[in-house]
Design a protein that fits this description.
Length: 355
C-alpha cells in the first residue's frame, strides 16, 4: 500500500479514531459503468423513455452562476466530479440503518480525462477534509453564506451537489465539466445485476464482513460492507479504507469487461435501469443520448490504466480527527491537472500516511 492511494487517520488517545461512519461507497465505478451501459442503448421506445425518466439532473451554470466558475480550457480533456451520496430517502432508507437524517457525500472524486481520452486519473478528496465552502444556493434559490472549516462530506447536505461542484472548483481552480451523483441503493442493485463481483485481498477483513485473504465473489449487500469496512481491516484507519474502495473499483470494471455486457440487450437494460434509478447528473448528461454521446467519446479509456491518487493531506492542528489539504503538494497536483500534464511524484506524497 502506497502513499499514492491511501492515508491514515490519527487516533485519539485511548485508541479511538475518527468517528466511524459506515456509509462510504466508492462510486467512481458507477460513472464508468453507467456510461458504458448506456453507450449502446438499443431498447424500445418505452424502455428509452423509462430510463430517461429515471435520471435526475442539475443545471450547474444556473445553480452556480457562469461568472463564478473557472473558465473552460479548450481541448484540455474532461473533468467529472463523482459523488457517492448516503441520503436515506426512498430505497436508501432500507440500507445500513434508515434512521440517519440528512445527506452526505462520503465519496468525492474528481476524475480527470486528458485530451485524447486514452487514460484517466481519479483524485479522491477525503470526506473528513476541512474545506472552505463558498456561498451557495439552496433548492429554493436562497443564498447560503459560505463557511470555513466545513467537512467535505457535509457540503452536499447544505447546498446540494452543485455546492459540492462549486467547492471543488474553488479549491482546485479546475472547471468541472460533468457531475455524476449516485445514491446508496444504486450501488447494491448494480452489483446484483452483474451477478456479483470478484475481489482479491491480501489481508483479512473481520467484523460486519469476515473474509480471509484470497479471492471472494461478493453480492450487492456484501459489496457495500466491503467498501465501508474500516475497523476490521489493516490498522482500522478511516482514510485507509480507500484501499478497499479502489480494489473494488478495479474489480467491478474488470467484471464489466469480462461479461461483455454490451452484447446482451437484456443484461444491458437491467444494468441501465438499476444505474439510472439512483443517478443525478449535470444538465448535459441528463438523458440517454447525453450519456451515450459522452460514453462514445470515452471509448478509448482503459480502466486498467486509471491512476488513483489521494489528495495530499495533513492532520489538522486543532482537530486531529480531521485533515486539511497540504501545500505545496495539493497545489502541484491541481496545477498539473489544469495544464493536462503528468502529476509529479512530489504531488502524490501526503504527510498523513496510511496503512
Amino acid at each position: 500500500m502506497t502513499q499514492d492511494t491511501t492515508v491514515r487517520s490519527r487516533r485519539r488517545a485511548g485508541g479511538r479514531g475518527v468517528r466511524p461512519r459506515r456509509r462510504r461507497v466508492l462510486r467512481i465505478v458507477l460513472l464508468v459503468l453507467v456510461l458504458l451501459l448506456l453507450g449502446a442503448a438499443g431498447t424500445g421506445w418505452w424502455a428509452y423513455n423509462h430510463l430517461n425518466g429515471n435520471i435526475d439532473s442539475v443545471d450547474l451554470d444556473q445553480a452556480i452562476g457562469v461568472d463564478n466558475r473557472p473558465a473552460k480550457v479548450p481541448d484540455s480533456g474532461q473533468n467529472i466530479l463523482v459523488l457517492g451520496s448516503d441520503s436515506r430517502d426512498g430505497a436508501n432508507g432500507e440500507l445500513d440503518h434508515g434512521n440517519v437524517s440528512g445527506s452526505r457525500s462520503d465519496t468525492n472524486m474528481l476524475v480527470h480525462i486528458p485530451e485524447g481520452r486514452k487514460k484517466a486519473t481519479a483524485i479522491s478528496i477525503p470526506r473528513d477534509t476541512l474545506v472552505t465552502r463558498p456561498d451557495c444556493k439552496d433548492k429554493n434559490g436562497k443564498t447560503i453564506p459560505g463557511a470555513n472549516r466545513v467537512m467535505m462530506n457535509a457540503v452536499i447536505g447544505t447546498g446540494g451537489p452543485a455546492c459540492v461542484v462549486k467547492t471543488v472548483e474553488q479549491m482546485s481552480g479546475i472547471r468541472v465539466d460533468h457531475l455524476v451523483k449516485v445514491e446508496f441503493a444504486g450501488f447494491k442493485e448494480l452489483v446484483d445485476a452483474l451477478g456479483g463481483v470478484d475481489v482479491t485481498i491480501d489481508k483479512p477483513i473481520k467484523g460486519g464482513l469476515n473474509l480471509a485473504p484470497g479471492t471472494h465473489r461478493l453480492n450487492g449487500t456484501d459489496s457495500l460492507k466491503f467498501v465501508r469496512t474500516r475497523h476490521g481491516y489493516g490498522d482500522g484507519s478511516d482514510l485507509g479504507r480507500i484501499d478497499l474502495q479502489q480494489k473494488f473499483m478495479i474489480a467491478m470494471l474488470s467484471e464489466i469487461k469480462k461479461q461483455n455486457v454490451l452484447s446482451s440487450p437484456a443484461r444491458l437494460y437491467k444494468l441501465a435501469d438499476a444505474g439510472t434509478k439512483a443517478l443525478t447528473t449535470d444538465a448535459e448528461l441528463d438523458s440517454l443520448k447525453g450519456l451515450s454521446d459522452f460514453a462514445q467519446s470515452m471509448n478509448g479509456v482503459d480502466p486498467e490504466t486509471m491512476e488513483t491518487i489521494m489528495l495530499p493531506v495533513a492532520y489538522d492542528k486543532i482537530d486531529k480527527n480531521r485533515v486539511v489539504a497540504v501545500e505545496p503538494q495539493s497545489g502541484q497536483l491541481w496545477d498539473a491537472l489544469r495544464k493536462d500534464q503528468p502529476i509529479p511524484a512530489s504531488a502524490k506524497k501526503s504527510p498523513a500516511t496510511g496503512g
